[in-house]
Design goal:
The chain is an alpha/beta fold. The chain has helices at 8-19, 42-48, 65-75, 94-104, 106-109, 127-135, 177-186, 196-210, 212-219, 228-238, 250-262, 274-313; strands spanning 3-4, 26-32, 53-58, 81-85, 115-121, 153-157, 161-165, 173-174. The chain has 12 helices and 8 strands. Strands 4-3-2-5-7-6 form a 6-stranded mixed beta sheet, sandwiched between helices.
Length: 314
């Protein structure tokens, strides 16, 4: 399954980032702390190369704090990366950001030279809210729907730092199907990319394994069902998500389940770990290898047809 979602302004943003690469001193990538891997843009990893990078695990108040610490340690094994965990309760984030930016670019920290900091992130990750907090004024538009920022803008801070804001950028296709589901669960991509019951089933299957006690507490369950469909069915009956005849309305209970997760009513939950990503990335490599093999097969067939055509002309 490849999810295609690459609006024109995102393509333009990607091009602009490449064009200004040499001007950028430090990259600031805003991630969703609930899905630190799936909310990364692999295109940015290619663009940034080994430039100093700050990864902001945003919305950390919605995530499992222990898993957030694990993710921070995981990212910081790369010597060019530092991390900060931010949430809606952190208050003024400016001092922390300015201090870390200067630490990442020491050759300019105590000079009059301007530090160019490019801030990037996928849609709906909280980037615009963070920019407004850091700048101390409303500069970037915010909203609950993905893809609010449409053009690049520069924000001058004190301390000779300029933030370069870009539209939220998704990559052309999401090769890891698990990442696609997690983005849909958290609202990083629009729900129309999936059938809602599929999103809820994926979330239910993971939460049954990773956070069983949270499910028991929230939905008043003494024993948990063994499967995602059984769980949604039981929740639907408890919450009155029924059609005529007493059948559970799967669409209705699926929406309820996803909204309960997004509204933090199930608790502070993280949907992925570094260990999970390693095995999933192997799957992505297999998918890429199969695509490459099919492409090569098509090219070989083309060559054979051309050779036959050339032979028949003689």
């Amino acid at each position: 399954m490849n999810i295609q979602w690459f609006p024109g302004h995102m393509h333009k943003a990607q091009k602009e980032v490449k064009e200004i690469f040499n001007q950028v001193d430090v990259f600031i990538e805003v991630l969703d702390a609930r899905i630190p891997f799936s909310s990364q843009n692999p295109m940015i990893e290619e663009i940034r190369q080994d430039k100093p990078t700050i990864k902001i695990l945003n919305k950390s108040d919605l995530a499992d704090p222990l898993k957030t610490e694990i993710w921070q340690s995981y990212f910081e094994t790369d010597g060019s990366i530092q991390t900060l965990a931010f949430n809606s309760q952190t208050g003024d984030k400016r001092e922390q950001m300015v201090s870390l930016i200067k630490k990442m670019v020491p050759e300019k920290a105590d000079t009059i030279k301007t530090i160019q900091a490019l801030i990037i992130g996928i849609p709906n990750v909280g980037k615009s809210t963070l920019i407004n907090n850091i700048s101390g004024r409303t500069i970037a538009k915010t909203g609950n729907e993905p893809a609010v920022t449409k053009r690049q803008q520069r924000i001058k801070l004190d301390d000779n730092i300029v933030l370069i804001d870009t539209p939220g950028m998704l990559w052309p296709n999401i090769e890891n199907p698990n990442s696609g589901y997690r983005l849909a669960i958290t609202g990083g991509i629009k729900e129309t990319a999936f059938e809602l019951p599929d999103i809820a089933s994926y979330a239910a299957e993971y939460l049954l394994q990773a956070y069983p006690e949270s499910l028991k507490t929230r939905f008043g369950l003494h024993e948990l069902p063994h499967s995602d469909i059984e769980l949604l069915d039981e929740i639907g009956r408890k919450r009155g998500c029924l059609r005529s005849g007493g059948m559970v309305d799967l669409e209705k209970v699926s929406r309820l389940f996803i909204m309960e997760y997004r509204d933090q009513k199930l608790g502070d939950l993280t949907l992925e770990t570094p260990e999970m990503m390693q095995s999933e990335w192997q799957l992505v490599e297999e998918i890429r290898a199969k695509k490459a093999a099919k492409k090569q097969e098509r090219e070989d067939r083309k060559k054979q047809r051309r050779a036959r055509h050339k032979k028949n002309k003689r």
